[in-house]
Specification:
The protein is of the alpha/beta class. The chain has a single domain, classed as 3-Layer(aba) Sandwich (Rossmann fold). It has 10 helices and 10 strands. The protein has a 6-stranded mixed sheet, with helices on both faces. Strand 7, helix 7 and strand 8 form a beta-alpha-beta unit. Helix 3 runs parallel beside helix 6. The longest helix has 16 residues. The radius of gyration is 17 Å and the shape is globular.
């Protein structure tokens, strides 16, 4: 479904991605692991059109994406939940969710709104509340719900557990599994490697802008290097 071929991305003279290649098949959850500065967020931003690679290619179902404006990438079926949530603090919960559907002209928006509320009942309870006054966990729910309102075929999730209490982390990950079960393919960037590998089908490990390991989630979770570097063993 998604294919990255030999991506090279720079921030000025800093070589952030050094030949990254990976694939995400339809229906999968694929985890992208690595320490801070490894290039995980840069990879997602490149897929969604926020960064332009200096070399390499990105394809969504054989359609080239490099050079496509971010709003057109959304229209092609890619949703992006950025690191730090980036909700609209002064808008209400409902207004934030409707912003996620800004490109849509079909008649299914209300049904998808109800789908988001089924996934995150707390958002229904807070529907008229200003988003900036929500808790961190509620803001993460809102960020995911906003992305789902675009009805993406592929969802990019960047650090969904960051700053959340353990009980909320479990709830968010249960919801990610349910979103995938309902038919959305997911590329997941996550510092909590144990949680990520517990729900993923496959994974890649990035170090200093390059893929150094790839395999099934089970194989990666049993890999001594992964266990030592990312699972605290």
């Amino acid at each position: 479904m998604l294919r990255l071929d030999d991506l090279h991305v720079y921030y000025g003279e800093i070589h952030a991605l050094k030949g990254v290649s990976l694939e995400v098949e339809r229906g999968e959850i694929v985890a992208l692991l690595g320490n801070n500065g490894a290039g995980k967020t840069t990879t997602l931003k490149t897929v969604s059109g926020l960064l332009a690679p200096r070399a390499g290619a990105v394809h969504l179902e054989d359609k080239p994406l490099v050079g496509t404006p971010p709003h057109d990438v959304v229209g092609l079926g890619i949703g992006h939940v950025p690191e730090g949530r980036r909700i609209f603090n002064r808008l209400t919960v409902r207004e934030n969710l409707m912003m996620g559907a800004f490109l849509r002209r079909d008649g299914g928006i209300e049904a998808d709104l109800q789908r988001v509320f089924a996934l995150f009942p707390r958002l229904m309870e807070r529907i008229a509340q200003v988003a900036g006054t929500l808790s961190g966990g509620e803001q993460q729910m809102l960020a995911i719900g906003r992305a789902l309102m675009a009805r993406p075929r592929l969802l990019l999730l960047d650090e969904p557990s960051m700053g959340l209490a353990p009980v909320l982390v479990e709830q968010i990950f249960e919801t990610i599994v349910e979103v995938n079960r309902q038919g959305t393919t997911i590329l997941l960037v996550e510092q909590n490697a144990s949680m990520a590998l517990s729900i993923a089908h496959r994974g890649y490990v990035l170090e200093t802008g390059a893929v150094v390991l790839a395999g099934t989630a089970t194989a990666l979770s049993q890999n001594p290097e992964v266990r030592r570097a990312y699972l605290g063993e």
